[in-house]
Amino acid sequence: MSHSSPDQPRRVIDRHLYVPHYLVVLANGMERGQSRIYLKHFGLGINEARIITVVAHSGAMTAAEICEILVMNKSIASRSLQVLESKGLVEIGDGKRSRPVALTEEGLALNERIVNVSLARERLLLNGFTPNEKAIVLGYMARMFSNMELANAYDPLESGGETGDDPL
């Protein structure tokens, strides 16, 4: 642990220069707004809507595949799938291990409404961005996503302590 002295200033994280701060705040803010809309208009939570959109995009898949794609906890996915099945929005196949999840006609129709809301909100979020700027942002985000496993594997005790050294 580093100790600061009167002649050595204490190190702090400036949230305005810290990328994870912006990512979390943007994600939380967008999720909060999206959740409010989905509950009010569709009677669903954000997790159920996320499952609908990923199954609509990729086709029938197992709960494990949904969890991997959405980086979603298995118990949350299980509860959400139960809700979706009870509302007639998904069908869950038979089997002990690999049970494919597919959207029903009602689920596909709801996906259309979710897509409309999501794309409208994205347009508002990116107001003032050019198509090229959007592509650049998406490229940076994809690179960060590919580095997420590396960042999550970091353990300061296994890496020689909290040195504060720039690993790059």
Secondary structure topology:
Elements: H1 19-42, H2 46-58, H3 63-70, H4 74-86, E1 90-92, E2 101-103, H5 105-125, H6 131-153
Antiparallel strand pairs: 1-2
Helix pairs in contact: 2-5, 3-4
Total domains:
1
Low-pLDDT segments: none
Number of helices: 6
Largest sheet composition: 2 strands, antiparallel
Shape: globular
CATH architecture: Orthogonal Bundle
Task: Look up the CATH topology.
Answer: Arc Repressor Mutant, subunit A
CATH superfamily: Winged helix-like DNA-binding domain superfamily/Winged helix DNA-binding domain
Strand order of the largest sheet: 1-2
Give the SSE string: HHHHEEHH
What features would you describe in this structure?
Helices cover 61% and strands 4% of the residues. It is built from six helices and two strands. The chain has 168 residues and is mainly alpha-helical. The protein is globular. The chain starts with 18 loop residues before the first helix and ends in a 15-residue tail after the last helix. The mean pLDDT is 91. Strands 1-2 form a two-stranded antiparallel sheet. The longest helix is centred in the N-terminal third of the chain and has 24 residues, at 19-42. The chain has one domain (19-153): Orthogonal Bundle (Arc Repressor Mutant, subunit A), CATH 1.10.10.
